[in-house]
Design brief:
The protein is α+β, with helices and mostly antiparallel strands.
């Protein structure tokens, strides 16, 4: 079976267009859900990397047409938690790193 060059070129075009859509740091909706995901590079096939939900949720089988850019704030709890754990988003008290245990205040000594 010989590969169809037209299909390969079309696929490459879709991937290129997807990267252009997310070039400005947009977030994404997957299908018609109300959930907004953070976007990052996701390995699709072999060495092929495409923009996708950072939580790797929602698009089974590489359905590239199911991801839509949006400027809306991220609402996916998994994406938000991943950002907090990476120090990219503030934790509950506004700090970038969660408090592991309380230390005595130097002023109270």
């Amino acid at each position: 079976m010989e590969p169809n060059p037209g299909v390969i070129e079309q696929f490459a075009s879709v991937v290129e267009q997807l990267w252009r859509q997310f070039a400005g740091g947009e977030n994404a909706r997957l299908r018609d859900t109300g959930v907004v995901h953070a976007v990052g590079p996701v390995r699709l096939l072999g060495e092929l990397v495409v923009p996708g939900a950072r939580c790797h949720t929602g698009v089974a089988g590489g359905e590239l047409g199911a991801i839509t850019p949006t400027r809306d704030a991220v609402t996916c709890r998994t994406c938000l938690e991943m950002a907090r754990l990476r120090g990219e988003a503030p934790g509950p008290d506004g700090a970038l790193q969660l408090v592991l245990f309380d230390l005595p205040d130097e002023r109270s000594r």
